[in-house]
Amino acid sequence: MSLRFQRLIIIILSLIFIASAAYLILTNVKKNIVFFYTPSELINSQTVINEKVRIGGFIKKDSLKNIIDSNNYSFVITDNQNDILIEYTGILPDLFRENQGAVIEGILINDKKVLASKVFAKHDENYMPSSIKKQLKKTDYWKKDY
To answer: What is the dotted CATH code of the domain comprising 39-121?
Structure first.
């Protein structure tokens, strides 16, 4: 085997290795990217009942209901066009409140109802934990009104 032929084989094997690595990375990234539906997208999609879904939107005003002395909650997620009823058992995040954004992960029970397993509260870019806010005020570094 000549030196030129050996180099050609090394280059071809390297290209095959790089192409297969890129293919594996792209297919795994595609499977692991997590998106969420808005209520309108969920209602208009062909999503299968009893399938795991994520829904993002705002908690509708006056829709949050709690069963007394339990961690069972029901509320409505909206995108100002359509509404989805959410039922959740557990402790809600601290930032969770009406007219705030949230992402819900759970099982689709029917077209307009989801049994939630996880609730993620969203906040805006100006959010700052109170402990950090107090520390900034204490050090007299607090200049901007958040």
So the answer is: 2.40.50.140
